Every structure is written in C-alpha cells, then in structure tokens.
C-alpha cells in the first residue's frame, strides 16, 4: 500500500512538471509569435437587421503557429492575460484592424466599423486610452469607426475602469458590453451611460425558437437595451428561424455562422464587393 501511494505521488509530480514545462513552452512561443507577426485577425460581420447592410465587423485574433497550425484565442489569450502580454497583443490587433480599415477605405470609399475585444485587466490599466489614441493618430483614423467590446464579467466597480471608458467615449470610441447575460451586472451599472451596445451571449440566443422561456429572456434583454438607449446585438445566430425571431423581437444586429464564419480581410473585401452598402 505504501509503495502504491508513493507511485501516485510521483505520477502527480510528473503531471505537474509536464504542465509547468508546457506552460513555459507556450510562454516562449507566444513571445516569439508577438515578435514575428504570427498573430493575425479574422473578421466576423454583424448584420444590421433593419437595413440588411453591414453594422460592424468583429476582429477575432488567431495564431498562425509554425507547427501547430491556426490556434484559437482560447489556446493563448488566457495565458497572455496572466503573464502580462495582453497589452502587446491588443496593440498588434488594433494596428492590423486600422491597417485593414485603411485598405477597405481606399477600395470602397467608406470605412467599415470594427469591434475589438479588450480583456478585463486592460480596463483597469490607465495605458489603454493612450494606446488607442496613439494608434488612431498613427493611422489618421476616426475614432467613430472603432468599437471596444468589454465582457460583462469585467464590469466591476472600479474608478480607473469608469474613467477609462468615459475618456474613450469622449474621444468618440464606442463601447459594447460583450457576452451580456453571463455576468452579474446590475441595472444601475448598465444605466451609468458608459455603453453604446449590448451583445447578447450566444448561450441565450441559441434555442429561442424552441423554448418560449428563452425567447422571453432575449426579448427582455432587447427591451432593456432599448430602454437604456443601447443597440441590441445577438451573437451566435446559426439558422434562419432564429434570425426571423430576432427580427420580430426588434433586435438591431445579428452575428453568427448563418452568415459566415470569421474570415480574413481579403475575404471581407470580396463580400463587400458582392453586396455594396
Ligand atoms: P467572443 O468575443 O464572445 O467572440 C465570439 C466567439 O464565438 C468567436 O470565437 C466566434 O467565432 C464564435 N462564434 C460567432 N458566431 C458563432 C456561431 O454562430 N456559432 C458558434 N458556435 N460560434 C460562433 P473565437 O474567435 O474562438 O473567440 C473566442 C473568444 O476569444 C472571444 O469570444 C473573445 O472573448 C476572445 N478573443 C478573440 N479575439 C480576441 C482579442 O483580440 N483580444 C482578446 N482579449 N480576446 C479575444
Ligand atoms: Ca467579442
Ligand atoms: Ca461575444
Ligand atoms: Ca460569447
């Protein structure tokens, strides 16, 4: 019994060591990726449900890993947050977004609005405003074509965060509450006028055509958004009946695989050519 107990302890140590070395490798590789432009952006359209045109594009980061292929943000964004690399990641994403917008503007004569995800810890960091304003200035780009998406779980009572959001919006950058419904924000926090839109989480959107209770919840979320003078955007729309229902409920915009998977900037150009504004 004694020896089998020790065996278990050793196996545990081995696993711990394996995890630690995987983490170290990820860390080194991510630093290398940031220094060598291995991170790329794909874009996921949000469609305006009243007019049928493009409401905005959401930028989603991918890692073109030299040996493991295209990695999803879930594989490296949490690590970037933990080790303090999220600021650099954000700067690279923002620069790619502004470069893509410049290109679309020369191609089409108008600048599609792009939403960029920010991590909770960036909001309590006073550098965010400077970074955003410097990037806009470097590209001579209007703040009005930029949206920052902030997950609802990040909406804590923090004076730096409140100040950051207020200053960004004073400069014309829009802010959307992402994954709405998954956090615990109070109505008073939502009503404090730092927001432009609520993005209703996919977990609420999927299933609204089968479950009247879910439909009721999404209806109430849209009504809440409108009562607060915010746009309501539904994420994760995968089929026509769901889209029709959202339209009926007065939702402003929708995003999901029904329209397309996230695609690269060149693919967005082709889509804009096919359906001009
Ligand atoms: P999110 O902001 O909630 O982004 C939506 C995610 O849902 C994306 O996954 C998107 O591809 C996926 N999605 C959209 N429509 C559908 C649909 O109809 N069906 C299904 N099944 N999925 C759909 P992705 O690209 O893997 O992103 C995952 C998360 O990673 C994002 O969730 C966001 O929180 C984070 N993320 C992505 N890019 C960045 C970034 O540049 N910075 C930071 N901080 N986080 C990012
Ligand atoms: Ca998002
Ligand atoms: Ca989302
Ligand atoms: Ca979500």
Please describe the structure with a list of short key phrases separated by commas or semicolons:
277 residues; alpha/beta; 8-stranded mixed barrel; 11 helices; binds ligand C2E; binds calcium ion
Question: How is the secondary structure organized here?
Answer:
Blueprint: H1 2-35, E1 39-48, E2 54-65, E3 69-71, H2 77-82, H3 86-108, E4 114-118, H4 120-123, H5 127-138, E5 146-151, H6 159-170, E6 174-180, H7 187-190, E7 197-200, H8 202-205, H9 212-227, E8 231-234, H10 240-248, E9 253-254, H11 265-274
Bound molecules: ligand C2E and calcium ion (3 copies).
Overall description:
- With 277 residues, this protein is α/β, with parallel strands linked by helices.
- 48% of the residues lie in helices and 19% in strands.
- The chain is built from 11 helices and 9 strands.
- It has an 8-stranded mixed beta barrel with strand order 1-2-4-5-6-7-8-9.
- The protein starts with a helix and ends with a helix.
**Biggest β-sheet strands, sense, barrel:** 8 strands, mixed, barrel
Helix percent reads: 40-55%
Shape: globular
Mean pLDDT: 92
Strand content: 15-25%
Largest sheet, spatial ordering of strands: 1-2-4-5-6-7-8-9
User: Order of SSEs, N→C?
Assistant: HEEEHHEHHEHEHEHHEHEH
- Low-confidence spans: none
Alpha-beta content class = alpha/beta
Q: Could you say which small molecules are bound to this protein?
A: ligand C2E, calcium ion
The termini sit apart by: 73 Å
Cα-based radius of gyration, to the nearest Å: 21 Å
**DSSP summary: helix tally:** 11
Number of DSSP strand runs: 9
